[in-house]
Amino acid sequence: MRIAFFVNSIEGEASYFTTTSLAIAAMARGHDICYVTPDGFVLRPDDSLSVRAIIPGVGKPKNADAFIATLNEKTSTKTIDVVDVDVLFLRNDPSLDADERPWAAHVGAMFGRLAVERGVIAVNDPDALAKAQNKLYFQDFPEVIRPTTLISKSLDEIRAFIDSQKRGVVLKPLQGSGGRHVFKIKSSKESNLNQIFEAVSGEGYLIAQGYLPDAVEGDIRLFLMNGRPLEKDGSYAAFRRVPAKGEVRSNISAAGTAAAVKVTPEILEVAEIVRPKLVADGMFLVGLDIIGSKILEINVFTPGGLQNIERLYGVDFSSVVIEALEKKVSTRANYGSRLSNAVLATL
């Protein structure tokens, strides 16, 4: 099986990324892997689609650091017809390209569709990813699992919403990731509200969410695969992201730390509520950020933290993900195009 990982850039990859764990797990299971970046697709006059695949130059790496060193220093580039790719794993973060390379932000979904038309399995399903380019996608899920939310560019609307929330609000851009430009606002009378508004609204629309008191302990990142909690040997792929002292953000990229967590029936119920839509949309691998009985975000592009979870519990969840892809490739071989990509992605 050949898996092509679509990422923002090679130099932006890191040893602690979930993509790295998945790539190493695939190699350990005997599969060929390559990376593709936004400038790596070629659609020719004969309607054939190729990828300029970046291929690590050595065999199975000793560890993640060695793999990333190889990826940056000892790679070769090979043009491959996309029909020779079994799985296109779309693992880019559109928000990272939105400002400086807007042309690149939606390339994965666009060319992912073309790859699917040529028989490639693309996960997560590119049609659904095209609809999930920002946090508005979250508003399509049941209200019972969403915090009270306002989306607007009007400071007057946001002030009024803050006044309606006794515990304050969390303000963040509609498009963004990694905890960038996330602020907790206690009162509409805060002296720096105008400055915060200017900083965040420069990126477009804003989301104001009613603050959840349990957030002081951080949130819980739970991985779902094929619409259900990712699990192996009785352990769930979940951990608590604990914010640094004085921080409202619990993102690992914002100095948050990882801690073990017990997955409760309440958490599983939250996951079950979102399952039907994730399955219908062909969302193969997803990260839920949960506080209490509410979900703050659903990460469908680059859910991270799998390495943290594997270290905490000593469980190889990455291999479980690759094994699931193997089954999809086998199913595609048996059924051909009779199953849509969206169905196959979560089967």
Task: Map the helices and strands.
Blueprint (H helix, E strand, L loop, with lengths): L1 E5 L11 H11 L3 E5 L4 E3 L5 E8 L7 H10 L1 E7 L5 E4 L3 H4 L9 H11 L3 E3 L2 H6 L17 E4 L2 H10 L4 E5 L9 E3 L7 H9 L4 E5 L8 E7 L2 E2 L1 E2 L2 E2 L1 E5 L14 E3 L5 H16 L4 E7 L2 E6 L6 H8 L3 H19 L5 H5 L2
Parallel strand pairs: 1-2, 1-6, 6-7
Antiparallel strand pairs: 3-4, 4-5, 8-11, 9-10, 9-11, 12-13, 12-16, 12-18, 14-15, 16-17, 18-19
Q: Any descriptors?
A:
about 350 residues, alpha+beta, Rossmann fold, D-amino Acid Aminotransferase, Chain A, domain 1, Dna Ligase, domain 1, 3 domains, 6-stranded antiparallel β-sheet, 19 strands, about 30% helix, manganese
The helix/strand series, from N terminus to C terminus, equals EHEEEHEEHHEHEHEEHEEEEEEEHEEHHH
**CATH fold field value of the largest domain:** Rossmann fold
Enumerate the spans where pLDDT stays under 50 for 5 or more consecutive residues: none
Number of self-contained structural domains? 3
Helix-strand category: alpha+beta
End-to-end Cα distance, whole Å, is 18 Å
Keywords: ATP-binding, Glutathione biosynthesis, Ligase, Magnesium, Manganese, Metal-binding, Nucleotide-binding, Plasmid
Organism: Rhizobium gallicum bv. gallicum R602sp
Family: Belongs to the prokaryotic GSH synthase family.
Domain ATP-grasp: 135-326
